[in-house]
């Protein structure tokens, strides 16, 4: 199978080499890797230039989406710029972060999953992050069927059906909800252990704290589901402050009449799906 990789990159001097080396070691190499240098101010571009010179696999694209590292908008803006320079001759499109180390068989396994299941829409492994003792620990949401945004691989049919990636916080949740809306399956593979070199959210702007609640509003969760989801998140993060940040963000989006990022029909499907999952977990 042919797959393309697009990597949005902003000030990743410390991690980028490890990511690109892990791509070069893949047992099934990609057809092309677009390295989107998004307004980096460190030595990131020099590293990109080195790899583009050493291998025709890599292609550089310089762009400026914004100066602030806000979740959602900045990374997807950069991703979409990279997407524009690619043709349509692919089976799988991959959005990859610039601070991960992939196992050498990562895309061999991903491609085999797509070949076995023609209805598979999104696939990926699991993220591991290093704790203070230097141990690599699984860092994953409570939903083990969710593929983390750092390592998303989409079938071409699924990617087209969901209309690409939404330029908003929550893009890596709504993509899977819309994939299910269009009849595609989501699959994770626990054998694919990806090392994430920088813990999620460490470089986010402080204003990002309330964007999760805003995202839940724009995905038409409704207030009750938002409260339940926010409470689960607060318990996972062991931070009641994150619960109130989410609720405040939701209410603020409601008061500002922030536009939804999905249709009313999609919203009804998502609500029903969320309630079904909530009820299933309550019975378990």
TrEMBL record:
Annotated keywords: Transferase
Protein name: Glycosyltransferase involved in cell wall biosynthesis
CDD domains per record: Glyco_tranf_GTA_type
InterPro entries xrefs: Glyco_trans_2-like, Nucleotide-diphossugar_trans
GO molecular function terms noted in the UniProt entry: hexosyltransferase activity
Gene3D superfamilies xrefs: Spore Coat Polysaccharide Biosynthesis Protein SpsA, Chain A
Pfam families named among the record's database cross-references: Glycos_transf_2 (PF00535)
Domain Glycosyltransferase 2-like: 5-142
The keyword Ribosomal protein is annotated on this UniProt entry: no
